[in-house]
Structures are given as structure tokens and as C-alpha cells.
Write a structure and sequence with these properties.
It is built from eleven helices and nine strands. By secondary structure, it is of the alpha/beta class. Strand 3 (87-91), helix 4 (102-110) and strand 4 (114-118) form a beta-alpha-beta unit. Helix 2 crosses helix 8, helix 4 crosses helix 11 and helix 5 crosses helix 6. The chain is globular, with a radius of gyration of 19 Å. It starts with a helix and ends with a strand.
Length: 329
């Protein structure tokens, strides 16, 4: 049964759509991409953040400027004697943060990797009020310019299509940033499914739904239909490990199966029993990722890809933000 908030929201959208479906679509996109409070959403999350606090304080934190946000990166380095010389970027999901990725970061550091965890706009230690795939890719681009090139990308949930979009150069005017390997964990395969789910939640009619989905073209320079992971991977034949649990209640396992159909360069790992969130800290998962990244192959500097148009000029940092700040490369 719909809650009172849902009923009021749907009534509002019906009223706006009756006057202008286009305005209803714009409003839906505004509400959908608006970030929420970074405060813990439950006692369980509060405890998890407290557990990660000491390790996060040990990281080297930098803040990088993108349009409308200052995004935080947290660098975890291995002991000099164990360093492999590889760099890995880890990107969390929606309503998450780098703190939740600490067990994964520690497993990769133990394997000799330098790990950079990125807080997406409006999440964790990053500022900003808007997050969509375009903003996520801009943040990944900023991390690449400051810390890259990266040998591997790892994306959990919404972070999965985000790292794939960055690697494929799927956002107009943001340069392609392609690592040697990619790992997705519990990731959706088709952003159109997400938009349809949101549209249903808002009670959008057909015309308003079309206007809602049309907002993607405005920020990405591409239609929503282009943002299927398997489609973005079509011309990106680099090794990809897809990890998903069949008991995931937030993102169905069928999403992993769809990504795995992209080609023989994709491996599918079932991580049953770990659901949608515990999966990022599960020992079998972190071990599998470390082994996958350790496989011999090309590095990020010699991935063969077709040329891409030049991008817009890079941004700069703001010294007004707390923490360590550097100018983007």
C-alpha cells in the first residue's frame, strides 16, 4: 500500500502533468537526482561508520573540484615493500560512501595495490546537491586526472554503470578514462530500468515519463537507451568481472546475467548469501577481486581503443575547502 508521502507526490505529478507533461518530467528528474542527507540512516549504519572511522582517518584525503561540487578522494597505500605499482579506483553506490568500502580497500592494499576511494557528489565527505550518471563520470574523471591513470575500476551498485560509462567515454565532453580491468558489484545493467521504476513510483503518465527520460540527453549528450552496460561494453573489450548475489533484493541477479552477455571478456561470479550491501565486504568477494586484478595483461597506459573527440578544459580546485587540496592535473 502506498504511503501518504507517495500518494501526495503522485497527486502533485498528476496536477503538474495535466498542465505540462514536460514540466512534470523536469520535476521528476530534479527530485530523482537530488542528493539526501549524509547522516547515518540507521543504527546499523552508524555502527559501521564508527568502525571505519579510524581507518578512514589514516587515508590521504584530497578534495577535487567539479561543476557544482567538491568531491573527496581517500587514498590507501600499501607498505613500500609490498607495493605492486598498480592503482585501483573504488566507487560506491547511491546513498553510500567510501567508508563502507574500507574492507575491500584493505584487501586490495594487502595485495599491494594503491587504492583510491571516491565519494560521489553529495555523498560521504563530498559536497553537492545533485547526483546522476553524468556527475558521477565527472567525479571519476577528476579522480583520474589527480591520481590516475588507474589499472582497475571497481563500482558497487550505481558505481557499476558509473565506472563503465567513464571507461567507455559515454558522457559528452568528458574524456574517456579506460583502465585495464573493471569490476562491477551488484550493479544495475540498464539505467532505463531505474528510470521506469522511479516513474512508476512517482505515478508518471506516458508523456511525463518520456519527458523524464528525455532529461538524460540534456546532461549526457546521448539518449537513455545508450546507457545499458552491455551496450557501453560493446566496443570496450577489456576484462570485466561481474559479481552479484542471487539473493540481492535491491538489484536483481538478472542484471548481472545481462552484463555477462556482453562477450567472452566478461566473467560472472555468484556471491550468494551476501545480498546487496554486505557483498562489498565479503571475504570471498574481496579475494576474487584481488586475484582478478593480479592477472597478467596490459595496463591502463596501453589499452587499445578507437580515438575520441577532445574534451572540455579541466577544472581547478578550491583552497577554501578543508583537508588537503591540489590543482587538478
Amino acid at each position: 500500500m502506498a504511503s501518504l508521502v507517495e500518494k501526495v507526490t503522485r497527486a502533485l505529478f498528476r496536477l503538474v502533468a495535466a498542465h505540462s507533461p514536460e514540466k512534470a518530467g523536469e520535476l521528476a528528474f530534479l527530485l530523482f537526482t537530488r542528493t539526501r542527507s549524509t547522516r547515518p540512516q540507521s543504527e546499523k549504519e552508524r555502527v559501521a561508520l564508527a568502525r571505519a572511522r579510524t581507518r578512514m582517518a589514516e587515508a590521504e584525503t584530497m578534495r577535487l573540484l567539479i561543476a557544482g561540487s567538491v568531491v573527496a578522494t581517500h587514498v590507501f597505500r600499501p607498505d613500500p615493500g609490498r607495493a605492486r605499482g598498480q592503482k585501483v579506483l573504488v566507487v560506491h553506490g547511491y546513498r553510500s560512501r567510501s567508508d563502507h568500502m574500507v574492507p575491500l580497500a584493505d584487501a586490495l592494499v594487502a595485495a599491494g595495490h594503491t587504492v583510491v576511494c571516491l565519494d560521489l557528489p553529495g555523498h560521504g565527505a563530498s559536497t553537492g546537491k545533485v547526483l546522476h550518471l553524468g556527475k558521477a563520470v565527472e567525479a571519476i574523471d577528476a579522480a583520474w586526472r589527480q591520481h590516475g591513470p588507474f589499472d582497475g575500476f571497481i563500482g558497487h551498485s550505481f558505481g557499476g554503470p558509473s565506472v563503465v560509462a567513464a571507461a567507455a567515454g559515454a558522457i559528452a565532453d568528458v574524456p574517456r578514462r579506460t583502465p585495464a580491468r573493471i569490476v562491477t558489484i551488484a550493479a544495475p545493467s540498464d539505467m532505463a530500468d531505474v528510470f521506469r521504476w522511479v516513474g512508476k513510483m512517482f505515478g508518471l503518465g506516458a508523456a511525463a515519463q518520456q519527458a523524464f527520460e528525455g532529461q538524460v540527453l540534456r546532461f549526457a549528450g546521448r539518449p537513455l537507451s545508450d546507457f545499458r552496460v552491455e551496450r557501453m561494453l560493446h566496443d570496450l573489450p577489456i576484462p570485466l568481472l561481474v559479481i552479484h548475489a542471487e539473493d540481492d533484493k535491491e538489484v536483481a541477479f538478472s542484471n548481472a546475467e545481462a552484463i555477462a552477455r556482453a562477450g567472452p571478456h566478461v566473467e560472472l561470479m555468484k556471491a550468494n548469501g551476501f545480498g546487496h550491501r554486505r557483498i562489498v565486504a565479503a571475504a570471498p568477494v574481496t579475494s576474487a577481486i584481488a586475484a582478478f586484478l593480479a592477472k597478467p595483461g596490459r595496463n591502463a597506459d596501453n589499452v587499445d581503443l578507437p580515438p575520441q573527440p577532445s574534451s572540455l578544459p579541466a577544472g581547478t580546485l578550491t583552497a577554501a575547502q578543508s583537508g588537503r587540496v591540489r590543482r587538478l592535473a
